[in-house]
Specification:
581 residues; alpha+beta; Ammonium transporter fold; Alpha-Beta Plaits; 2 domains; 4-stranded antiparallel sheet; two-stranded antiparallel ribbon; 55% helix
C-alpha cells in the first residue's frame, strides 16, 4: 500500500472515530436538555423532568433498534417514502451498520426530548412514555429517512438539511405546539381580569443557574451535533465557525432586543436566544459562509423573542421553556435560509438566492419544510388525540398544584431535605382545564359529617377582642379559601408553605425497592388575625371552602391575641387592625 493510500486510510479511520465521538457529544446533550427544562420549571417538578429525559433515550433505544432504524435507513425503500425493514440485526450481526445506528439513535432521542419542556408540569408520566415510544419508533424515522437516506425522496430532490433544523428541531417544535395546545395551560398561567380580558401571568422557573448550565452543555454538544458528519478537516472547521458565529450573533441580538423592549436585558430569553441561533444554523452549517451565518443568527435572535411573546400573549399557548419558538420557528427559518445563503452547488443542489442561484434551491427547501410539517402535524395530532381518549394527557388539578414529583413518583422533593417550592399561582376558578381546582369527591355531605365544635372566649376587659385563626390544609384548596375569606371581607392573611402530618402519619412510598415512610407531606398554613369580622364567620367560611370529607382536609386552630402593634403608626389593639380611612 502506497503513501497516498495509507494517508487516505488513516484519514478515513480518523473521521470514523470522530463520527462516533460526535455521537457521544450529541448524547451528552440529553443532560443539557434536562438542565434547561428543570431550571426553567418549578422545583416541585424537577424529578419528573429528569425521569422524562432519561426515559426518552432509553425507550428510544429499544424501539429505534427494533423498528425505527430500518424504517429510516434501510437500503430498500418504498418509493423513497419508507424503509423496508429487514432482520439483518439478527441474521447478519457482524455486518450490521452499528456506527450509523448509534449516530442516528442519538439524533432520534433529541427530536423526542424537545417536547418534554413544552409539555412540562402537567403531563401524565405514562402519557409521555407512550408519546416518546411512538415518535422514536415511527414519526421521526420516516421523515428523517426522506432527508438523510440516499433513497429518500427529499434527498433525491437535492433538499439540504445537514444536521437537522427541520428533520429534528422543526419536528420537535411542531410536536411541542400540538402537545401544549391539546394539554392546555398550567393552572394560573392565564386568568380573566375584571374587564373579561385574559391576563398572562409569569411562572418563573426555579433555577436560572441550572438553565444556563443546560445551555452551555447544549452549545458544547452542538459541535458534535453539527460537525459529526464532516468528512474532512476544512469542512469541520467551517462547521465549527458557522455554528459559533450564528449562535453568538443570535445571543447578542436577543439581549439587545429585550433590553430595548423592556428596559433591561432578559436573562432567560437571552439563553433561549443562544439555543435559537444553534437551531437556526444547524441545517446550513456546512453550506453557508460567515456572512450567511451572521444573518441567520441575527434573524434567529429576533424570531425567538417575537415567537415566544406571540405564543404566550396572543395565542395563550403555555410553553414553559420556549421549545416551540426555539426549535419549531427557528427550525423552519434555518432550513429555508439554506435556499438563500447556500454557497455550494452540485449533485442536484443549487446555490442560494443571494449567491446567484435563483429561487430553485429555496423552493426545494420550502417543499421539504411543508412536507415534513404536514407529516408531523397529521401524525402527532392523531397520536395525542388517541392518547387523550384512552390514557388521558393531563394529571388532575390537585396533582398539578402539589407537583408531579410527589404525585407521579412519590418524591416529596427532588432537593433532599430542602423545602419543596410549591406555588399555586392561583387565579380565578376555572383557570384549571376542568374548571375546578380539586377533583376529590365528597365521601359524605358536610351536613352529615361530625360537626366541628369550637368556642371563643370573650374578652373581659371591654376591649374589642383580637383572635388568630390558623388553618392548615391542602395546597390545592388555597384559591377557594382565599375567595371565601375575601367574600366575608377578610383580606389580611399570612401564607406559609409547610410540611407535616396528622394522625395518619403521612403515607408510604418505595425508594430503590425499600419502603420509605413519608411522614411530612406538603401543606399550606394560612394565618388570619381578626377583630372586626366575627371568628364564627371565619370558621364557617373556611369549613365550607375546605371540606371534602376525605382524610387530609386539614385543621383549624383558634388563639387569643393579647395585643397588636402597628409599627408605622404606633397604634395598638383594635385600631392597629384597621386600614386607612
Amino acid at each position: 500500500m502506497g503513501a497516498v493510500e495509507l494517508f487516505e486510510q488513516a484519514s478515513s479511520d480518523l473521521f470514523g472515530i470522530w463520527f462516533l465521538i460526535g455521537a457521544v457529544l450529541v448524547f451528552f446533550m440529553q443532560a443539557g436538555f434536562a438542565m434547561v427544562e428543570t431550571g426553567f420549571t418549578r422545583a416541585k417538578n424537577a424529578g419528573n423532568i429528569i425521569m422524562k429525559n432519561l426515559m426518552d433515550f432509553c425507550i428510544g433505544t429499544v424501539v429505534f433498534l427494533l423498528i425505527g432504524f430500518n424504517l429510516m435507513m434501510a437500503e430498500d425503500t418504498l418509493f423513497g417514502l419508507i424503509g423496508i425493514p429487514n432482520l439483518n440485526l439478527f441474521t447478519d450481526f457482524a455486518n450490521f451498520p452499528w456506527s450509523s445506528f448509534v449516530f442516528n439513535l442519538v439524533f432520534c432521542a433529541t427530536a423526542a426530548t424537545i417536547v418534554s419542556g413544552a409539555m412540562a408540569e402537567r403531563t401524565k408520566f405514562s402519557t409521555y412514555l407512550i408519546y416518546s415510544a411512538v415518535i422514536s419508533c415511527l414519526i421521526y424515522p420516516i421523515e428523517a429517512g426522506w432527508v438523510w437516506n440516499g433513497s429518500g425522496w427529499l434527498y433525491q430532490m437535492g433538499y439540504v438539511d445537514f444536521a437537522g433544523s427541520s428533520a429534528i428541531h422543526m419536528v420537535g417544535g411542531i410536536t411541542s405546539l400540538i402537545g401544549a395546545k391539546m394539554l392546555g395551560a398550567r393552572i394560573g398561567k392565564y386568568t380573566k381580569g375584571k374587564d373579561g380580558k385574559v391576563e398572562v401571568n409569569a411562572i418563573p422557573g426555579h433555577s436560572l443557574t441550572l438553565g444556563a448550565l443546560g445551555v452551555f452543555i447544549l452549545w458544547f454538544g452542538w459541535y458534535g451535533f453539527n460537525g459529526a458528519a464532516a468528512t474532512e478537516v476544512g469542512q469541520l472547521a467551517q462547521i465549527f465557525a458557522t455554528t459559533t458565529v450564528a449562535t453568538g450573533f443570535a445571543t447578542v441580538t436577543t439581549m439587545l432586543f429585550t433590553w430595548m423592549k423592556s428596559g433591561k436585558p432578559d436573562v432567560s430569553m437571552t439563553l433561549n436566544g443562544s439555543l435559537a441561533g444553534l437551531v437556526g444554523i444547524t441545517a446550513g452549517c456546512a453550506n453557508v459562509d460567515v456572512f450567511g451565518a451572521i444573518v441567520i443568527g441575527i434573524v434567529a435572535g429576533f424570531l425567538v423573542v417575537i415567537a415566544v411573546e406571540v405564543l404566550d400573549m396572543k395565542l395563550h399557548i403555555d410553553d414553559p421553556v420556549g421549545a416551540i419558538a426555539v426549535h419549531g420557528v427557528n427550525g423552519v427559518w434555518g432550513t429555508l435560509a439554506v435556499g438563500l445563503f447556500n454557497i455550494y452547488e452540485g449533485d442536484g443542489i443549487g446555490k442560494g438566492l443571494f449567491y446567484g442561484g435563483g429561487i430553485s434551491q429555496f423552493m426545494t427547501q420550502l417543499v421539504g419544510v411543508v412536507a415534513i410539517a404536514v407529516w408531523t402535524v397529521v401524525t402527532m395530532y392523531l397520536v395525542f388525540a388517541i392518547i387523550k381518549k384512552t390514557n388521558g394527557l393531563r394529571v388532575s388539578p390537585a396533582e398539578e398544584i402539589e407537583g408531579l414529583d410527589i404525585s407521579e413518583h412519590g418524591l416529596a422533593s427532588s432537593y433532599a431535605d430542602f423545602m419543596p417550592v410549591t406555588n399555586a399561582y392561583g387565579g380565578l376558578a376555572g383557570s384549571a382545564p376542568s374548571g375546578d381546582l380539586v377533583e376529590e369527591k365528597l365521601s359524605v355531605p358536610m351536613d352529615a359529617a361530625v360537626p366541628v365544635q369550637y368556642s371563643v372566649t370573650e374578652s373581659g376587659s371591654g376591649k374589642p377582642k383580637i383572635t388568630k385563626v390558623t388553618i392548615i390544609t391542602r395546597q390545592s384548596k388555597f384559591d377557594e379559601l382565599k375567595r371565601a375569606m375575601n367574600a366575608i371581607e377578610v383580606t389580611g392573611m399570612t401564607v406559609i408553605q409547610v410540611v407535616g402530618c396528622g394522625l395518619q402519619k403521612g403515607s408510604s412510598h418505595y425508594y430503590r425497592g425499600v419502603p420509605v415512610e413519608i411522614n411530612l407531606l406538603p401543606k399550606i398554613q394560612v394565618e388570619i388575625v381578626v377583630s372586626k369580622v366575627p371568628v364564627e364567620l371565619v370558621v364557617e367560611a373556611a369549613k365550607n371552602a375546605l371540606y371534602t370529607g376525605n382524610i387530609g382536609d386539614g385543621k383549624i386552630f383558634i388563639y387569643n391575641v393579647e395585643d397588636v402593634i402597628k409599627i408605622r403608626t404606633g397604634e395598638t389593639g383594635y385600631d392597629a387592625m384597621q386600614g386607612e380611612e
